[in-house]
Specification:
296 residues; alpha/beta; TIM Barrel; eight-stranded parallel β-barrel; binds flavin-adenine dinucleotide
Protein backbone atom coordinates (compact mmCIF):
# COMPACT_ATOMS: atom_id res chain seq x y z
CA UNK A 1 0.00 0.00 0.00
CA UNK A 2 1.39 3.43 -0.89
CA UNK A 3 2.04 6.10 1.74
CA UNK A 4 -0.73 8.15 0.13
CA UNK A 5 -3.24 5.34 0.61
CA UNK A 6 -2.29 4.92 4.26
CA UNK A 7 -2.58 8.67 4.77
CA UNK A 8 -5.98 8.36 3.23
CA UNK A 9 -7.60 5.57 5.18
CA UNK A 10 -9.97 8.07 6.84
CA UNK A 11 -13.61 8.33 5.84
CA UNK A 12 -13.83 10.54 2.74
CA UNK A 13 -15.75 13.79 2.54
CA UNK A 14 -18.68 13.85 0.16
CA UNK A 15 -20.89 16.39 -1.57
CA UNK A 16 -24.00 15.98 -3.70
CA UNK A 17 -25.34 17.63 -6.85
CA UNK A 18 -29.08 18.09 -7.44
CA UNK A 19 -31.05 19.70 -10.23
CA UNK A 20 -34.00 22.08 -9.70
CA UNK A 21 -37.28 20.16 -10.08
CA UNK A 22 -39.75 20.92 -12.86
CA UNK A 23 -42.93 19.29 -11.53
CA UNK A 24 -44.56 18.74 -8.15
CA UNK A 25 -43.64 15.05 -8.19
CA UNK A 26 -40.01 15.88 -8.93
CA UNK A 27 -40.09 18.48 -6.19
CA UNK A 28 -41.29 15.87 -3.68
CA UNK A 29 -38.58 13.46 -4.77
CA UNK A 30 -35.86 16.12 -4.47
CA UNK A 31 -36.79 17.09 -0.91
CA UNK A 32 -37.12 13.47 0.15
CA UNK A 33 -33.64 12.84 -1.29
CA UNK A 34 -32.18 15.88 0.46
CA UNK A 35 -33.71 14.74 3.77
CA UNK A 36 -32.18 11.28 3.35
CA UNK A 37 -28.74 12.55 2.34
CA UNK A 38 -28.40 15.38 4.88
CA UNK A 39 -27.53 12.99 7.76
CA UNK A 40 -24.42 11.92 5.80
CA UNK A 41 -23.00 15.36 6.65
CA UNK A 42 -22.02 16.45 3.11
CA UNK A 43 -19.44 19.23 2.81
CA UNK A 44 -21.94 21.02 0.53
CA UNK A 45 -24.80 20.32 -1.85
CA UNK A 46 -24.95 21.98 -5.24
CA UNK A 47 -27.92 22.88 -7.43
CA UNK A 48 -27.49 23.01 -11.20
CA UNK A 49 -28.46 25.83 -13.54
CA UNK A 50 -30.44 24.60 -16.55
CA UNK A 51 -29.01 24.73 -20.04
CA UNK A 52 -29.39 28.19 -21.56
CA UNK A 53 -30.04 29.68 -18.13
CA UNK A 54 -33.52 28.15 -18.29
CA UNK A 55 -33.82 27.44 -14.56
CA UNK A 56 -32.61 30.71 -13.10
CA UNK A 57 -35.67 31.14 -10.83
CA UNK A 58 -35.99 27.45 -9.97
CA UNK A 59 -32.31 27.16 -9.09
CA UNK A 60 -32.57 30.24 -6.90
CA UNK A 61 -35.75 28.99 -5.20
CA UNK A 62 -34.22 25.56 -4.51
CA UNK A 63 -30.99 27.02 -3.14
CA UNK A 64 -32.91 29.49 -0.95
CA UNK A 65 -35.06 26.68 0.45
CA UNK A 66 -31.91 24.69 1.31
CA UNK A 67 -30.67 27.74 3.25
CA UNK A 68 -34.00 28.25 5.00
CA UNK A 69 -35.01 24.67 5.78
CA UNK A 70 -31.85 22.57 6.16
CA UNK A 71 -28.50 22.73 7.89
CA UNK A 72 -26.73 22.12 4.58
CA UNK A 73 -24.29 24.48 2.85
CA UNK A 74 -25.64 25.06 -0.65
CA UNK A 75 -23.59 25.85 -3.76
CA UNK A 76 -25.50 27.55 -6.56
CA UNK A 77 -24.44 26.74 -10.13
CA UNK A 78 -24.35 29.78 -12.39
CA UNK A 79 -23.53 30.05 -16.10
CA UNK A 80 -22.69 32.89 -18.51
CA UNK A 81 -25.32 31.84 -21.04
CA UNK A 82 -27.98 34.22 -22.43
CA UNK A 83 -27.52 37.02 -19.89
CA UNK A 84 -25.64 40.30 -19.60
CA UNK A 85 -23.03 40.89 -16.91
CA UNK A 86 -25.47 43.22 -15.12
CA UNK A 87 -28.16 40.51 -15.03
CA UNK A 88 -25.72 37.89 -13.78
CA UNK A 89 -24.31 40.29 -11.19
CA UNK A 90 -27.85 40.76 -9.85
CA UNK A 91 -28.18 36.99 -9.46
CA UNK A 92 -24.83 36.84 -7.65
CA UNK A 93 -25.86 39.64 -5.29
CA UNK A 94 -29.21 38.01 -4.60
CA UNK A 95 -27.37 34.82 -3.60
CA UNK A 96 -25.14 36.79 -1.26
CA UNK A 97 -28.20 38.50 0.27
CA UNK A 98 -29.87 35.10 0.74
CA UNK A 99 -26.88 33.88 2.75
CA UNK A 100 -25.38 31.71 -0.01
CA UNK A 101 -21.57 31.69 0.12
CA UNK A 102 -20.62 29.17 -2.56
CA UNK A 103 -21.11 29.44 -6.33
CA UNK A 104 -20.20 26.89 -8.99
CA UNK A 105 -18.97 29.19 -11.74
CA UNK A 106 -19.48 27.84 -15.26
CA UNK A 107 -19.52 29.05 -18.81
CA UNK A 108 -22.42 26.80 -19.82
CA UNK A 109 -23.11 25.19 -23.15
CA UNK A 110 -24.32 26.97 -26.30
CA UNK A 111 -28.11 27.50 -26.17
CA UNK A 112 -28.27 25.76 -29.59
CA UNK A 113 -26.94 22.59 -27.95
CA UNK A 114 -23.69 20.89 -26.94
CA UNK A 115 -21.29 20.65 -29.86
CA UNK A 116 -22.45 23.91 -31.45
CA UNK A 117 -20.05 26.86 -31.50
CA UNK A 118 -20.14 28.89 -28.27
CA UNK A 119 -20.57 32.63 -28.68
CA UNK A 120 -20.55 34.83 -25.57
CA UNK A 121 -23.81 36.74 -25.03
CA UNK A 122 -23.48 40.44 -26.01
CA UNK A 123 -22.45 42.32 -22.87
CA UNK A 124 -22.16 39.05 -20.97
CA UNK A 125 -19.34 37.16 -19.29
CA UNK A 126 -17.14 35.38 -21.83
CA UNK A 127 -16.35 32.17 -20.01
CA UNK A 128 -15.97 30.66 -16.54
CA UNK A 129 -12.69 32.52 -15.91
CA UNK A 130 -14.36 35.85 -16.64
CA UNK A 131 -17.41 34.90 -14.53
CA UNK A 132 -15.20 33.82 -11.61
CA UNK A 133 -13.60 37.29 -11.60
CA UNK A 134 -17.10 38.84 -11.59
CA UNK A 135 -18.19 36.69 -8.64
CA UNK A 136 -14.98 37.46 -6.72
CA UNK A 137 -15.52 41.20 -7.28
CA UNK A 138 -18.96 40.98 -5.68
CA UNK A 139 -18.35 38.89 -2.57
CA UNK A 140 -16.09 36.60 -0.65
CA UNK A 141 -17.68 33.48 -2.09
CA UNK A 142 -16.23 30.02 -2.23
CA UNK A 143 -15.94 29.48 -6.00
CA UNK A 144 -15.94 26.02 -7.56
CA UNK A 145 -15.29 25.54 -11.28
CA UNK A 146 -15.50 22.62 -13.70
CA UNK A 147 -12.46 20.66 -14.87
CA UNK A 148 -12.05 17.94 -17.46
CA UNK A 149 -9.81 14.90 -16.87
CA UNK A 150 -10.28 13.92 -20.53
CA UNK A 151 -10.14 17.59 -21.62
CA UNK A 152 -13.11 19.73 -22.61
CA UNK A 153 -14.29 18.83 -26.13
CA UNK A 154 -13.75 22.42 -27.31
CA UNK A 155 -10.21 22.54 -26.00
CA UNK A 156 -7.32 22.17 -28.47
CA UNK A 157 -5.29 20.09 -26.01
CA UNK A 158 -5.17 18.99 -22.38
CA UNK A 159 -2.47 21.63 -21.82
CA UNK A 160 -4.71 24.40 -23.24
CA UNK A 161 -7.50 23.16 -20.98
CA UNK A 162 -5.23 23.25 -17.91
CA UNK A 163 -4.06 26.76 -18.89
CA UNK A 164 -7.72 27.78 -18.87
CA UNK A 165 -8.24 26.13 -15.47
CA UNK A 166 -5.30 28.23 -14.21
CA UNK A 167 -7.02 31.38 -15.46
CA UNK A 168 -10.13 30.40 -13.50
CA UNK A 169 -8.03 29.94 -10.36
CA UNK A 170 -6.16 33.22 -10.91
CA UNK A 171 -9.60 34.86 -11.07
CA UNK A 172 -10.78 33.41 -7.76
CA UNK A 173 -11.70 29.73 -8.06
CA UNK A 174 -11.02 27.78 -4.88
CA UNK A 175 -12.00 24.25 -5.95
CA UNK A 176 -12.41 22.34 -9.22
CA UNK A 177 -15.05 19.64 -9.64
CA UNK A 178 -14.46 17.25 -12.49
CA UNK A 179 -16.56 16.09 -15.35
CA UNK A 180 -17.59 12.46 -14.79
CA UNK A 181 -15.27 9.65 -15.88
CA UNK A 182 -15.04 5.91 -15.27
CA UNK A 183 -11.32 5.17 -15.21
CA UNK A 184 -9.58 6.03 -11.93
CA UNK A 185 -6.18 6.18 -13.63
CA UNK A 186 -7.42 8.86 -16.01
CA UNK A 187 -8.39 11.07 -13.07
CA UNK A 188 -5.28 10.33 -11.01
CA UNK A 189 -3.05 11.02 -14.04
CA UNK A 190 -4.93 14.27 -14.63
CA UNK A 191 -4.40 15.38 -11.03
CA UNK A 192 -0.69 14.66 -11.38
CA UNK A 193 -0.50 16.79 -14.54
CA UNK A 194 -2.48 19.58 -12.90
CA UNK A 195 -0.21 19.54 -9.81
CA UNK A 196 2.88 19.59 -12.04
CA UNK A 197 1.43 22.73 -13.64
CA UNK A 198 1.50 24.40 -10.20
CA UNK A 199 -2.22 24.13 -9.41
CA UNK A 200 -2.82 23.48 -5.71
CA UNK A 201 -6.59 23.89 -5.16
CA UNK A 202 -8.65 20.74 -4.42
CA UNK A 203 -9.57 18.78 -7.56
CA UNK A 204 -12.70 16.85 -6.61
CA UNK A 205 -13.80 13.92 -8.78
CA UNK A 206 -17.39 14.09 -10.07
CA UNK A 207 -18.94 10.63 -9.74
CA UNK A 208 -21.91 9.90 -11.97
CA UNK A 209 -24.81 7.86 -10.55
CA UNK A 210 -26.80 7.37 -13.75
CA UNK A 211 -28.40 3.93 -14.03
CA UNK A 212 -29.81 4.66 -17.50
CA UNK A 213 -26.78 3.34 -19.37
CA UNK A 214 -28.05 4.23 -22.85
CA UNK A 215 -28.68 7.82 -21.75
CA UNK A 216 -25.30 7.93 -20.06
CA UNK A 217 -23.57 6.87 -23.28
CA UNK A 218 -25.32 9.62 -25.22
CA UNK A 219 -24.34 12.21 -22.64
CA UNK A 220 -20.77 10.95 -22.41
CA UNK A 221 -20.32 11.25 -26.17
CA UNK A 222 -21.47 14.86 -26.11
CA UNK A 223 -19.22 15.90 -23.25
CA UNK A 224 -16.11 13.98 -24.26
CA UNK A 225 -16.13 11.45 -21.41
CA UNK A 226 -15.18 7.91 -22.36
CA UNK A 227 -17.06 4.82 -21.27
CA UNK A 228 -14.88 1.70 -20.91
CA UNK A 229 -15.95 -1.32 -23.01
CA UNK A 230 -16.28 -3.39 -19.86
CA UNK A 231 -19.31 -1.27 -18.86
CA UNK A 232 -20.97 -2.08 -22.21
CA UNK A 233 -20.54 -5.73 -21.38
CA UNK A 234 -21.85 -5.31 -17.82
CA UNK A 235 -25.00 -3.43 -18.88
CA UNK A 236 -25.65 -5.54 -21.97
CA UNK A 237 -29.14 -7.10 -21.80
CA UNK A 238 -30.28 -5.00 -18.81
CA UNK A 239 -32.31 -2.40 -20.69
CA UNK A 240 -35.59 -3.62 -19.20
CA UNK A 241 -34.23 -4.27 -15.72
CA UNK A 242 -33.95 -0.92 -13.97
CA UNK A 243 -33.53 -2.29 -10.44
CA UNK A 244 -30.51 -4.38 -11.39
CA UNK A 245 -29.01 -1.46 -13.33
CA UNK A 246 -29.32 0.65 -10.17
CA UNK A 247 -27.53 -1.92 -8.04
CA UNK A 248 -24.78 -2.30 -10.64
CA UNK A 249 -24.41 1.49 -10.97
CA UNK A 250 -23.84 1.92 -7.22
CA UNK A 251 -21.35 -0.94 -7.25
CA UNK A 252 -19.42 0.55 -10.20
CA UNK A 253 -19.37 3.98 -8.54
CA UNK A 254 -18.11 2.52 -5.26
CA UNK A 255 -15.38 0.55 -7.06
CA UNK A 256 -14.28 3.73 -8.82
CA UNK A 257 -14.23 5.65 -5.54
CA UNK A 258 -12.21 2.90 -3.83
CA UNK A 259 -9.62 3.01 -6.62
CA UNK A 260 -9.47 6.82 -6.35
CA UNK A 261 -9.17 6.61 -2.57
CA UNK A 262 -6.26 4.20 -2.91
CA UNK A 263 -4.65 6.85 -5.13
CA UNK A 264 -4.98 9.54 -2.46
CA UNK A 265 -8.41 11.07 -3.17
CA UNK A 266 -10.37 12.04 -0.05
CA UNK A 267 -13.36 13.97 -1.45
CA UNK A 268 -16.09 12.87 -3.82
CA UNK A 269 -18.84 14.86 -5.52
CA UNK A 270 -21.83 12.74 -6.54
CA UNK A 271 -24.12 13.55 -9.46
CA UNK A 272 -27.24 12.22 -7.70
CA UNK A 273 -29.89 12.97 -10.35
CA UNK A 274 -32.05 13.82 -7.32
CA UNK A 275 -32.24 10.20 -6.18
CA UNK A 276 -30.99 9.31 -2.74
CA UNK A 277 -30.71 5.50 -2.99
CA UNK A 278 -27.69 5.24 -5.27
CA UNK A 279 -25.81 7.94 -3.39
CA UNK A 280 -26.65 6.29 -0.05
CA UNK A 281 -25.55 2.87 -1.31
CA UNK A 282 -22.29 4.19 -2.79
CA UNK A 283 -21.53 6.18 0.36
CA UNK A 284 -22.27 3.17 2.60
CA UNK A 285 -19.81 1.10 0.57
CA UNK A 286 -17.25 3.87 1.19
CA UNK A 287 -17.96 3.88 4.92
CA UNK A 288 -19.81 7.21 4.82
CA UNK A 289 -22.80 6.69 7.11
CA UNK A 290 -25.38 8.98 8.71
CA UNK A 291 -23.99 11.02 11.58
CA UNK A 292 -26.07 9.94 14.61
CA UNK A 293 -26.52 13.47 15.93
CA UNK A 294 -27.78 14.73 12.60
CA UNK A 295 -29.88 11.64 11.86
CA UNK A 296 -31.80 11.98 15.16
P1 LIG B 1 -14.86 27.17 -19.40
O1 LIG B 1 -13.93 26.54 -18.45
O2 LIG B 1 -14.94 28.63 -19.43
O3 LIG B 1 -14.52 26.75 -20.88
C1 LIG B 1 -14.65 25.42 -21.32
C2 LIG B 1 -13.42 25.02 -22.11
O4 LIG B 1 -13.34 25.82 -23.28
C3 LIG B 1 -12.15 25.25 -21.33
O5 LIG B 1 -11.85 24.09 -20.57
C4 LIG B 1 -11.18 25.59 -22.39
O6 LIG B 1 -10.63 24.43 -22.89
C5 LIG B 1 -12.02 26.25 -23.46
N1 LIG B 1 -11.98 27.70 -23.35
C6 LIG B 1 -13.00 28.54 -22.98
N2 LIG B 1 -12.60 29.81 -23.02
C7 LIG B 1 -11.32 29.80 -23.43
C8 LIG B 1 -10.35 30.81 -23.68
N3 LIG B 1 -10.63 32.11 -23.54
N4 LIG B 1 -9.13 30.42 -24.09
C9 LIG B 1 -8.84 29.11 -24.24
N5 LIG B 1 -9.71 28.12 -24.02
C10 LIG B 1 -10.92 28.45 -23.63
N6 LIG B 1 -23.75 23.34 -17.49
C11 LIG B 1 -24.91 24.01 -17.24
O7 LIG B 1 -25.51 24.55 -18.18
N7 LIG B 1 -25.43 24.09 -15.98
C12 LIG B 1 -24.81 23.53 -14.90
O8 LIG B 1 -25.32 23.63 -13.77
C13 LIG B 1 -23.59 22.81 -15.11
N8 LIG B 1 -22.90 22.26 -14.09
C14 LIG B 1 -21.67 21.67 -14.31
C15 LIG B 1 -20.94 21.20 -13.21
C16 LIG B 1 -19.68 20.64 -13.41
C17 LIG B 1 -18.89 20.13 -12.22
C18 LIG B 1 -19.13 20.53 -14.73
C19 LIG B 1 -17.79 19.90 -14.95
C20 LIG B 1 -19.87 20.99 -15.82
C21 LIG B 1 -21.14 21.57 -15.63
N9 LIG B 1 -21.88 22.10 -16.69
C22 LIG B 1 -23.08 22.74 -16.45
C23 LIG B 1 -21.42 21.93 -18.06
C24 LIG B 1 -20.56 23.12 -18.53
O9 LIG B 1 -21.35 24.27 -18.62
C25 LIG B 1 -19.98 22.74 -19.89
O10 LIG B 1 -19.03 21.73 -19.75
C26 LIG B 1 -19.44 23.91 -20.72
O11 LIG B 1 -19.24 23.45 -22.05
C27 LIG B 1 -18.11 24.46 -20.23
O12 LIG B 1 -18.25 25.10 -19.04
P2 LIG B 1 -16.93 25.52 -18.20
O13 LIG B 1 -17.40 26.29 -17.04
O14 LIG B 1 -16.08 24.36 -17.98
O15 LIG B 1 -16.30 26.53 -19.27
Amino acid sequence: MSAKAVENSATPRVSFEFFPPKTEDMETRLWESIARLEPLGPAFVSVTYGAGGSTRERTHRTVKRIVDETGLAPAAHLTCVSATKAEIDDVIRSYWDAGVRHIVSLRGDPPEGIGERYTPFPGGYENAADLSAGIRAIGDFEISVGCYPEKHPESASLQADIDHLKRKIDNGATRAISQFFFDADVFLGYVETVRAAGITIPIVPGIMLQPNFKGLKRMAKLCGASIPDRLDRVFDGMDEDEKTRELVTAHIAADLCHALKAGGVDQFHFYTLNRAELALATCALLGVKPEPAKAA
